[in-house]
Q: What sequence folds into this?
């Protein structure tokens, strides 16, 4: 009786898969930023901008009865996007899109309204862009992997 052997050496496969995983992880941050950009652009477009500047003297922002002047567009200009190191990790990236509350403390009043003023939401409606956000992230992720030669 004769026998034969078949050997399949996949030792190089581990290195190949590790390389693909590393490139996919590296693509996560640019992909997340592409999605954040869609939100950021939409939020800035939706922020109401007055024709002229205004005074703000909300009780939580008073300092010895001082009023504060805000130029037209201050809220829009305080909108930002930033990468979050604390909420990101291996294979995932998080970006925050919001407005700087210290620069423009009345943003909550615009977004949610007050007992005397109606709400003019600009941040919450951006959630409707979720499909566009996902498409932008997917396009950037695939583009990154193509650029690295992982996919064609």
A:
């Amino acid at each position: 009786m004769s026998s034969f052997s078949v050997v399949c050496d996949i030792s190089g496969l581990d290195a190949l898969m590790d390389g693909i995983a590393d490139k996919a992880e590296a693509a996560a941050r640019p992909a997340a930023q592409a999605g954040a950009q869609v939100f950021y652009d939409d939020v800035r477009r939706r922020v109401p901008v007055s024709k002229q500047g205004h005074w703000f003297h909300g009780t939580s922002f008073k300092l010895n009865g001082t009023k504060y002047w805000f130029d037209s567009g201050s809220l829009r200009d305080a909108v930002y996007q930033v990468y979050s190191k604390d909420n990101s990790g291996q294979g995932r990236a998080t970006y925050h899109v919001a407005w700087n509350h210290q620069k423009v403390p009345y943003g909550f009043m615009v977004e949610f309204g007050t007992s005397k003023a109606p709400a003019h939401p600009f941040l919450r409606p951006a959630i409707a862009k979720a499909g566009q956000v996902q498409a932008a992230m997917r396009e950037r992720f695939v583009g990154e992997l193509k650029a690295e030669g992982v996919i064609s």
